[in-house]
Amino acid sequence: MPLWLELALRIGAVVAAFLTLPLIVGQMEHKVMAHMQGRLGPMYAGAFHGWAQLVADGVKFVQKEEVVPRAADRQVFKLAPIVALIPYLVALLVIPLGPGDLVAQPLDIGLFLVLAILGVGIVSVLMAGWASANKYSLLGGLRAAAQLLGYELPFVLAAASVAMAAGTLSLTGIVEAWRPWWLVWQAPALFVFFVAGLAEIRRPPFDMPIADSELVFGYLTEYTGLRFAFFLLAEYVGIIVIAALTTVLFLGGWKGPFLDAELGWLWTLLKVFAVSFVIIWLRVAYPRLREDQLQRLCWLGLVPLALAQLALTAGVKIAL
Hints:
- By secondary structure, the protein is mostly helical.
- The protein has one domain (67-319).
- The chain has 14 helices and no strands.
- It has helices spanning 3-37, 40-44, 51-63, 74-94, 110-118, 121-131, 135-166, 171-177, 182-185, 187-200, 212-215, 225-250, 260-285, 291-319.
């Protein structure tokens, strides 16, 4: 097979996953929240128990008028939703689905690239908040910037602990080096990474940047129609990316109880959807944190715990 054709097929597969997996997670969120909250529409709309609710939401976004505020910076305002999607698309290129060639672009520094590109997400939030010419949007953008800058540190430190344990920055290499007893050894890093990941994608209980009771809808206040849908798509792709990284770094990736080589992709997907379910469940189960509680948890809780785990990992590696 020509190299260009193989590359095109790999990129096409990633784009297909980029467009379909968030829809599955969105449908999962509709169903999970409907059953937890007793909402009838998402449970029974459509012949197949709720599928029509997701279709109706999509049609609603398409039909809504796309409004740009008169005082807004039009180019930046329109570009922000696209910038929000790019980091997650790039991240999916290097996250392995299974052993061997089941990754679009294997890199020896895959973890470094993913952590670096996810940091670009803050740019789209600041673009949306500043360009909207709305004080509530600006406040939401600044809150998001403070949150993302703070939680980026424990997020990276927790990932560094696993990379140190595996002795590589390759995501494939980390999965190959993973052992079941890491579930205990790296459990603090898993907790830090998962919580910081929730804050990175601004999911409840870390959704202060779009606190509707205080900021109308934060940096998304002025967005309507498809532009708002793009931000919503970025949120669901973010769930997939954080769940996939948690799976690859801490849960053994494609390793399962049997047939790792043959069914590795299936084990990966099952773990990703299991982690996504936990993310959705937390939205229903826990109230939103206050801004001071959010920052205190980061700097007085997660950062010291991540540093302690990093020191423990270094000590174990030296001893071995």
